[in-house]
Amino acid sequence: MRWDFRPEAEIWTQKTLLAVAENDPQLTMTVPSDIETWCPGYPEASVEERRAFWSGILSALAKHESTWNPLASGGGGRWIGLTQIAPGTARAHGCDATSTGALKDGGANLTCAVEIVAKQVSRDQMVAGNGRFGLGRDWAPFRNANKRADMAAWTRVQPYCQQKGGLRG
Predict the structure, then answer these.
(1) pTM, entire model
(2) Has domain 9-160 been given CATH number 3.30.420?
(3) What sign has the CA pseudo-torsion 32, 142, 124, 16?
(4) Tens digit of pLDDT for each residue in 61-118?
(5) DSSP characters over 115-151
(6) For the chain, where are the E strands, in sequence order?
(7) What is the per-residue burial (b if ≥16 Cβ within 10 Å, else e) of 60-85?
């Protein structure tokens, strides 16, 4: 994951993968219409590789939202943690972590982020589209073309996003 240099990386990755697995019907069983931009090998990927993609995209998002700082607080204290979730947004999405303190726990923040991602991807059948759909509904970095390109460039070269052998055309 993009946060692999952080001491918390292993637990963040485990928590995110577990949350994605709990949302398999909305995430890993879906092939978003814009997936080619983000993960060219996704349509033929295994469930484990698809879970890795969703975890990976959140690790890329966390770079732009908090520079991987679980204690980050933005917008005058309105947005909290790794993926900058407002407590009200967490409550609206049925997350377990709904307080400022709880959202500063990296694993809890990421688990909540997966809940949000599952709802928005299921709703739009897109990762982000032009930046206003899927993850872009809740996270501003997806609405910024340069940041969206950075995140897509990172995810698309990961091993779990590589196309399998065979001719394309």
Answers:
(1) 0.96
(2) no
(3) positive
(4) 999 999 999 999 999 999 999 999 999 999 999 999 999 999 999 999 999 999 999 9
(5) HHHHHHHHHHSSS-TTTTSGGGGT-GGGGSHHHHHHH
(6) 73-74, 79-80
(7) bbbbbbbebebebbeeeeebbbbbbb
